[in-house]
Amino acid sequence: MQTVIIKAKNIDQLISFNEQIRTIDTNSKSSLNNLISKESFLKKREELFKLELNKIKKDINTFSVQAGFKSNSFNDAYTYELEVPKYNYKQLVNYGISIQKYKDEYISYSLISQEKLDEVLKLNFVYAINLKTLFEKDLEKDLDKMISLGLLALTFIVILIALITKEKVIYALSFLILPSAFIFTYLSFIPINILHIFMFFIILAISIDYAIYSTKDNSISTKKAIIFSALSSFAGFGVLVFSSTPSLYSIGSVATLGIIAILILIFFEKVKNES
To answer: What are the backbone dihedrals phi and psi of residue 5, each rounded to the nearest 5 degrees, phi first?
Structure first.
């Protein structure tokens, strides 16, 4: 079970949010499970009205008299509260309900089954306590913004490379195209997350530097420098491919593919020069 935080503007909304969680994970555990929201209460009351309990009670009293019971012996049968329950903060705390008030919000928690955690975290009023999940959820909110800014920066970079490298622009762009091809081929077979995109743009930034160096100075020393720099980048990012943590593995896998693509370009350029 994983603990999540529930936030709401008022107590009834907090209870309603917990009921939504329970529709997803019927095994969720929260002290709010013992409470009913106004909306749910009205639905239940409507169902009771449809059962015509007062008529049933009248029939029971009639049959009970015929059976020898005193009149109105079952007068309290099928009696139910018709008023909407009203909760207040102090009352719930005294009853042992886990609820806190912070500024203008009411906060509680719920224990969620591991297999239902991802689905529950999609609700905009649910927040993970786990730092890893919190980090990934915050990044997901900025995914569209990151992609838009990344593509804008990439467009500017391509123009800049064309101006700097001039007649060698095709060779320079290969340092962007091949790593991108490797990475997106890999990503086409797996679910993509924000960290894949994040590392993709870092690899492009590294590749751009190598592209400019290679077009300006095609000497052996430059190629060796690029190779050692790529290996140091692998030591910083690529080794994360061996991590069992999914977020770190996402970074490491993209970094490894990008660096391999760069090394392939350097190797084939070296073979071409020697031939």
So the answer is: -100, 140
**Can you read off the two tokens belonging to residue 207?**
């590749």
Neighbours of 18 (CB within 10 A): 23
The string over 237-271, giving b where at least 16 C-beta atoms fall within 10 Å of a residue's C-beta and e elsewhere, is bbebbeeeeebbebbbbbbbbbbbbbeebbeebee
The secondary structure of residue 76, as a DSSP letter, is T
Distance between CA atoms of residues 204 and 183, nearest Å = 11
Going across the sheet that includes 126-128, the strands are 100-102, 105-112, 2-8, 126-128
- The predicted structure's pLDDT at residue 154: 78
Distance CA 122, CA 24 (A): 11
Q: Strand pairing partners for 2? A: 112
- Contact (CB, 8 A) for 4 and 134: no
3-state DSSP of 164-231? HHHHHHHHHHHHHHHHHHHHHHHHCCCCCCHHHHHHHHHHHHHHHHHHHHHHHCCCHHHHHHHHHHHH
Tell me the domain boundaries of the chain.
2-129, 141-274
Coil, strand or helix: which one is 46?
A: helix
DSSP letters spanning 113-173? -GGGHHHHTTSTTEEE-SHHHHHHHHHHHTHHHHHHHHHHHHHHHHHHHHHHHGGGHHHHH
**pLDDT tens digits for range 206-229:** 888 777 777 776 667 777 777 787
Residues in the chain, total: 275
pLDDT at 133: 58
